[in-house]
UniProtKB/TrEMBL annotation:
Name by which UniProt lists this protein: DUF429 domain-containing protein
């Protein structure tokens, strides 16, 4: 099961997601468009 979250921050947008049982990943995007271009399948 995949888990995904996004929230605004001073740098823009921070996302955290888990694609497997062992690894969480965190990314920071300057714009919501940049986020959407990367994770349009979320």
């Amino acid at each position: 099961m995949n888990y995904f979250g996004i929230d605004g921050c001073k740098a823009g947008w921070v996302s955290i997601y888990k694609r497997n049982q062992l690894k969480w990943e965190i990314e920071i995007f300057t714009t919501i468009k940049e986020f959407w271009n990367t994770h349009s399948d979320a």
